[in-house]
Specification:
The structure holds two protein chains of two kinds. By secondary structure, chain A is mainly alpha-helical. Chain A starts with a helix and ends with a helix. The relative contact order of chain A is 0.15. In chain B, the strands form two sheets. Chain B has a six-stranded mixed beta sheet, sandwiched between helices. The model of chain B has no long low-confidence stretch (mean pLDDT 91). The chains are: A mainly alpha, B alpha/beta. The interface between A and B is medium-sized, with 27 and 36 residues.
Chain lengths: 235, 234
């Protein structure tokens, strides 16, 4: 199961990893709200929020290579939008602001995802008031998306062993992929039901759901710092 | 003594019209180990899926530990019936072995510390405690099977249901699994094509054919009567 590989990253031992998912989620949402509403966005804003992202990255003790690899997934998209903005308006500053805003936002999102296992993050969202149905759907999408990828990789292997993939057979292969994934997903769902799954992912960590002083410091401290920076220096 | 599992006239038809079960009558006592033999598509797996309500019979009755199979009893029945699926990869979905073993316990509402204690005990029972922190996908086939077993043993079921447990296991892993099952006190219902494994783990056997049980007896009798041994003369 390849998704478990990606989950390993979120199981480090840093102080940020140990924080409650709700605190991290609240802090990141606050940052994103401030980044999105910062007017104007010039280099001081970029440096300020970039420094905060750097601090979060260092606190999370993440690997630089892994972080940059994930950032590079988003970079082409944001760079394209920034380039289009520059070409259509001729305003390089606006294009730069768009690019740096996006990168800072993505950096915070990566730190959040990299320090919180997916199911803990979604459970945290539910505890913060996100609709249960929405969270359950997101959990299932996360689980089954990787079933689909896993199944596609198996089919690719089978196709290669018989001479490779042909585009002319793509539609049939896609249908077969969906059918076999559906069958596999049914079996996984049965296995979950057989062990009493009720729609909520359980958390083994004894600390799960317990809010402590560090969580308050993270969520409250982030909000206070950003508010002061906005009021005092318009950041 | 009342039977742990009692099925009377159990019938099931898949949505595509395939008649998978055509009147199953079967009783399983506490502590016994029953082997289900039969060709592919004979109805063994379909029957097993009824035992914790994953499939619901169109006709007939089924009781598990005195509880009739109905929606109100599902949680209690699933606590009593531990199901080990054919493909361990389908069953192991949590990020670490320990979390997977604790999955059912947490669903039952146990406190995390208590669930961890039971899960660790179950992993120790199948000699997999050393792998508690590992990701399940890093394990070998035999190890995955034992972790899947630990996941259901942790819930302390009265009945263990194993669907083709030797699939993709090498002979040493099969031997180890048979030994392990022999040590467990629970009643067992094991569907298998492997006559030797059935003989090593079962006290009684039944033979499925086209959705019906057509014979019952000791494992040796059934293997002989239906030519189920993997020998050249079969």
């Amino acid at each position: 199961m390849r998704h478990l590989e990606s989950d390993q990253w979120s199981r480090g031992g840093s102080a940020l990893h140990r924080c409650d998912a709700r605190a991290k989620l609240a802090a990141v949402l606050t940052v994103l709200a401030f980044v999105g509403t910062a007017r104007p966005w010039h280099w001081p804003q970029g440096v300020f929020y970039g420094s905060l992202a750097l601090a979060a990255l260092l606190a999370a003790q993440l690997s630089w290579a892994g972080f940059l690899r994930r950032l590079s997934v988003v970079l082409p998209v944001t760079a394209t939008f920034a380039l289009l903005t520059w070409l259509s308006t001729g305003d390089a500053g606006r294009a730069g602001a768009l690019l740096s805003r996006s990168l800072v936002s993505v950096a915070f999102a990566i730190v959040l995802i990299a320090t919180t296992p997916a199911h803990a993050l979604l459970t945290g969202a539910e505890r913060l008031g996100a609709p249960r149905m929405l969270v359950a759907v997101a959990q299932m999408v996360h689980r089954y998306l990787f079933v689909l990828i896993d199944q596609a990789l198996r089919m690719r292997q089978a196709a290669r062993s018989r001479g490779g993939f042909r585009w002319s057979a793509a539609a049939g292969a896609a249908a077969a992929l969906l059918l076999s994934s559906e069958q596999r997903a049914t079996r996984i769902h049965q296995a979950m039901l057989a062990r009493g799954f009720t729609g909520t992912w359980p958390e083994l960590s004894a600390a799960a759901g317990r809010w402590n002083v560090f969580d308050s410091a993270l969520a409250g401290g982030t909000a206070l710092t950003l508010l002061l920076a906005r009021l005092l220096w318009r950041l | 003594m009342a039977a742990l599992v009692e099925a009377h006239g159990l019938a099931y038809r898949y949505p595509d019209g395939t008649e998978a079960l055509r009147g199953i009558d079967l009783a399983v006592s506490a502590g016994e180990s029953l082997i289900l033999f039969g060709a592919n598509g004979a109805g063994k797996s379909t029957f097993l899926l009824h035992l914790n309500g994953l499939l619901r019979a169109a006709r007939g009755t089924l009781t598990v530990d005195g509880l009739p199979m109905k929606t109100a009893n599902l949680a209690a029945i699933r606590q009593r019936v531990g199901f080990v699926f054919q493909d361990a990869d389908d069953q192991l979905f949590m990020p670490t072995v320990l979390e997977d073993a604790a999955f059912g316990l947490l669903n039952q509402g146990l406190e995390p510390s208590e669930a961890r204690r039971h899960a660790e005990a179950a992993l120790a029972q199948v000699d997999m405690l050393h792998a508690a922190g590992r990701a399940p996908y890093h394990l070998s086939g035999g190890e995955k099977r034992r972790v899947a077993l630990a996941g259901v043993l942790a819930m302390q079921p009265k009945l263990l249901v194993l669907d083709e447990p030797t699939t993709s296991l090498d002979p040493p892993a099969q031997h180890k699994l048979a030994e392990l099952l022999g040590r467990l006190p629970q009643a067992k219902l094991i569907s298998t094509h492997d006559a030797a494994f059935g003989q090593a783990t079962g006290s009684r056997a039944v033979f499925f054919e086209r959705g019906k049980i057509v014979g019952g007896g000791t494992v040796e009798e059934i293997v002989r009567r239906y030519g189920w041994a993997a020998s050249p003369e079969r």
